[in-house]
Write a structure and sequence with these properties.
By secondary structure, the chain is mostly helical. Among the domains are: 73 residues, no CATH class; 57 residues, no CATH class. Helices cover 70% and strands 0% of the residues. It is built from 6 helices and no strands. Helix 2 crosses helix 4. The longest helix is centred in the N-terminal third of the chain and has 42 residues. The protein is globular. The relative contact order is 0.08.
Length: 197
C-alpha cells in the first residue's frame, strides 16, 4: 500500500515538473499560434482516448468485481470442508450454527442459489453484530488502523466499505481518508495510533 502511494506521488511530481519545465521554456505568452493549436488538439484527442479507455476499464472492472464477489460467495462447492475463517461472521456464530451454515450452503450451491443464500447470511450477521455490539470481520480482513479510536459500528461500517469497494484505487482512497480522520482524532487526544493495516 505504501509502495503504491509513493509511486503515485513520484509520477504526479514528474508530470508536474515536466509541465512546469515546458511552460518555462515557452514563457507565459510564448509559442506560435498554429503549432500550439495543433498540439492542443492532439492533447485533447489523447485526453478523450484516455477517458474512453478509463471508462471501459471502469465498466470492465465493475463487472469483474461483481463476478468475483459472486464467485467468492459460491467458490466453496464442497461447503462441508469449508474452514471457519472463510465464513462471513464466523466469530458471531456457534459451532452448531457454523455446521448448519455449511450444510445449508452446500444445498444452496447444489440448487444454484448459493449467492442468494450467502447474501441473506451476510445481512443476518451484520444485524447480529449491530445488536451485540461486536466487530464483524469479513474473511481476509484484520484489525482496523486506529480501531481503538472508533466505535464498533464505525469499525464495522469501514470494513464493509472496504469489502464492497469497486477497485484497489477506491480501497486506497478509503484507507487514506480513514488514516487522516484517525490521526486527527489521535492528535486531538494527544495519543499515538498503533499500526494495524
Amino acid at each position: 500500500m505504501k509502495y503504491r502511494t509513493v509511486i503515485s506521488i513520484v509520477v504526479a511530481s514528474a508530470l508536474a515538473l515536466a509541465s512546469a519545465s515546458s511552460f518555462a521554456q515557452r514563457g507565459p505568452g510564448g509559442g506560435n499560434g498554429a503549432a500550439d493549436r495543433t498540439h492542443q488538439a492532439d492533447r485533447d484527442r489523447g485526453y478523450d482516448r484516455d477517458r474512453m479507455t478509463d471508462r471501459s476499464r471502469t465498466e470492465t472492472g465493475a463487472h469483474q468485481r461483481d463476478q468475483d464477489r459472486d464467485q467468492d460467495r459460491t467458490k466453496f462447492q464442497d461447503a462441508a470442508n469449508m474452514e471457519d475463517k472463510d465464513i462471513y461472521g464466523n466469530a458471531l456464530m456457534t459451532n452448531t450454527e457454523r455446521k448448519q451454515y455449511r450444510s445449508e450452503l452446500g444445498t444452496a450451491n447444489a440448487q444454484g442459489s448459493g449467492a442468494g443464500f450467502q447474501a441473506r447470511h451476510e445481512q443476518m450477521m451484520q444485524k447480529r453484530a449491530l445488536e451485540q455490539g461486536q466487530d464483524l470481520v469479513p474473511p481476509g480482513q484484520g484489525p482496523v488502523y486506529g480501531g481503538e479510536f472508533m466505535t464498533v459500528q464505525e469499525r464495522n461500517e469501514y470494513r464493509e466499505q472496504l469489502r464492497l469497494s469497486d477497485s484497489d484505487e477506491e480501497r486506497l482512497q478509503l484507507k487514506a481518508q480513514h488514516r487522516d480522520r484517525i490521526r486527527q482524532r489521535a492528535d486531538a487526544l494527544g495519543l499515538e495510533v498503533e499500526e494495524a493495516e
